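Journal club side-thread
Mid-discussion, someone asked how the predicted structure for our own chain would compare to the paper's figures. Pasting it here so we can look after the session.
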Amino acid sequence: MKKGIFFVMLSLFLVFLNSMILIVSIVILNDRLSTVRDRCLAEHYVIASSLIGDIQALEQRGNNAEEKIDQLMSSYIRYLQGKGSGLAVAFSGEWIYKSSALMPKKNMDFPPDTEYMQERIVYMENETSPILCVYGSFPEPWQDYGLMYIGSLGDTVSSWRHTKNILFLMGAVMMLVMAFFLLQFLNFIFRPLRQISSASAKIAGGNYESRLSVQGKDEIASVAHNFNLMAEQVETQIRHLQDIAEQKQQFIDNFSHELRIPLTAIYGYAEYIQKVPVTEEERYECTQFIMSECSRLQNMAYQLLDMALLRKGEMEMEEEDCSVNVLFEQSGKVMHVKAAEKRINLSYVRTGNFLIRGNMEQLLILLNNLIDNAIKASQPEGEIYVSVYSEESGIAVEVEDHGIGMEPDQISHIKEAFYRVDKARSRAAGGAGLGLSICERIVQLHHTELTFVSEPGKGTIVSLHFPQT
């Protein structure tokens, strides 16, 4: 593109420059020819006036001017000597005197016809050498006479050609200078485009941190600024896609690990029953363990299905004003039994009748998952408090336990699928690490905020912040 612009602009400049030089040359030539023409007219007038006086003097003395013409013209030839000019005299349509070798051939036989009028004809001849001719008839009673003044244009044309050559030489020099500065200018103009191309190539090669330097406030700076914004967006999107890909890979790895353990146990016990003679009691224990692992796999499948439905928005979502007291009552019917199995005291603290906007079924899943995690994290004889209170931005529901707690880096991963703080304890309790992933999606659907405050060995407080209805 740069080469094309360079040659186009240089060609246009060359055409413009040569046209201007040609126009200037023509103007100079016309000016010089006009000067020579005026000089020749002046010389012709002076000589013709003087020659008329000489002819009149000869005729008054009784002499024939036609016979004495050579003698009369000798003084004028001396006058013109060195000027490169010549004279010719005509009488009755014939030349009676010719002094110059510059005499035009086409007028050698007959001088120009002026019909005996006092007119002067100016014309140019260009046979061997350019000349300027001025011819005019004399006034009465000498109208049969005519004088031609012949001026050489060789020096004038030669000088003009020299001037023209200098102009074209200067034009060539100007063209070279113009080509140099045009190339530098295009390099300067296209430098940001080269930088954009280079940065684009780096980004295409995987270097998403490449940026352009923004200088000034012109259009090029605006393009560089917009390119940097685009590069930042591309880098952000690429990193987001990389994070998603990493999370998906981690999900697959964790899912494969979660499947491997129960399937290995099921296969092992089934093979044991098939190949080893066992008593009815041992057979019962083996089948009981197989059923337990199958139940865990079934629970995992249901949780994965719930996650998929929540992600696609296909799970039924009919919002209504839900009473927190009713939510606590329905949750207590299920979770009190589970807490009692571990001898944990589960308390629901109500300080008023609060209403939150949402789907009762999903809110119940959300709250029960949080309480279930608190039960798994608590020691036997521990305590868990579920409370609700009003805050400036809305209503908060908290689940507080005094269990094992979490480190700060663990809190940043607990919402990931299959992630568990205490893997051995969670697996023994039948957990697959999907509960909080489901909770996070329900929270997003309800435009709610889920926060964690935890300290290792002291417990965890999980808070749900609902907007005001």
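Post-session note: The chain has ten helices and twelve strands.
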